[in-house]
Amino acid sequence: MKTNIATAEIAQPYAEALMSIAQSKNQTEGFGEDVRSLLNLLSDSEQLRNFFGNPFIPPEDKKAVISRIFGEGANTYLRNFLMLLVDRRRILLLEDICQQYLALLRQIKQTVLAEVISAVPLSEAQQQAVKEKVIAMTNAREVELDTKIDRDIIGGVIIKVGSQVIDASLRGQLRRLSLRLTSA
């Protein structure tokens, strides 16, 4: 399901409720790790996304899958929260709720999310250099990188932080050079 304003408005209270539970148990970061794992699982499995989004699958079956995914030793509060989402028929908003939770967690920790697009995977030193650049730009305490590979940018990186975009890619430089040449 595509994120839009309506789903964001519906997902926000659930994310805030999950954050409230995490804060009351003093486990905001632990919940964050579980939510990241859940998001990775959902992004890797279209079949699981379709299963949760299908209104014709009985809630008991969805709950059984959640129990199987989380097992007995997992975070019971998060598992119960997911069961509540099934009962309220909001499980199809799970990705949006998880994204909202992570945004709340970043806000609490004064962490900035930076989307980094590069032609090849970045080394640890390059990732650290990007983090330092973003910290200098935003005055944040920490930076969380969301790295993506796009071979079309040829080389360099594109860094997106909120509405700011730093295009240091070869494709971007070639585009700017082309614009200068055609306007001259």
TrEMBL record:
<dbReference type="Pfam" id="PF00213">
    <property type="entry name" value="OSCP"/>
</dbReference>
<keyword id="KW-0139">CF(1)</keyword>
<keyword id="KW-0813">Transport</keyword>
<dbReference type="InterPro" id="IPR026015">
    <property type="entry name" value="ATP_synth_OSCP/delta_N_sf"/>
</dbReference>
<keyword id="KW-0472">Membrane</keyword>
<protein>
    <recommendedName>
        <fullName>ATP synthase subunit delta</fullName>
    </recommendedName>
</protein>
<dbReference type="GO" id="GO:0046933">
    <property type="term" value="F:proton-transporting ATP synthase activity, rotational mechanism"/>
</dbReference>
<keyword id="KW-0066">ATP synthesis</keyword>
<comment type="similarity">
    <text>Belongs to the ATPase delta chain family.</text>
</comment>
<comment type="function">
    <text>F(1)F(0) ATP synthase produces ATP from ADP in the presence of a proton or sodium gradient. F-type ATPases consist of two structural domains, F(1) containing the extramembraneous catalytic core and F(0) containing the membrane proton channel, linked together by a central stalk and a peripheral stalk. During catalysis, ATP synthesis in the catalytic domain of F(1) is coupled via a rotary mechanism of the central stalk subunits to proton translocation.</text>
</comment>
<keyword id="KW-0375">Hydrogen ion transport</keyword>
<dbReference type="GO" id="GO:0031676">
    <property type="term" value="C:plasma membrane-derived thylakoid membrane"/>
</dbReference>
<keyword id="KW-0793">Thylakoid</keyword>
<dbReference type="InterPro" id="IPR000711">
    <property type="entry name" value="ATPase_OSCP/dsu"/>
</dbReference>
<dbReference type="InterPro" id="IPR020781">
    <property type="entry name" value="ATPase_OSCP/d_CS"/>
</dbReference>
<comment type="function">
    <text>This protein is part of the stalk that links CF(0) to CF(1). It either transmits conformational changes from CF(0) to CF(1) or is implicated in proton conduction.</text>
</comment>
<dbReference type="GO" id="GO:0045259">
    <property type="term" value="C:proton-transporting ATP synthase complex"/>
</dbReference>
<keyword id="KW-0406">Ion transport</keyword>
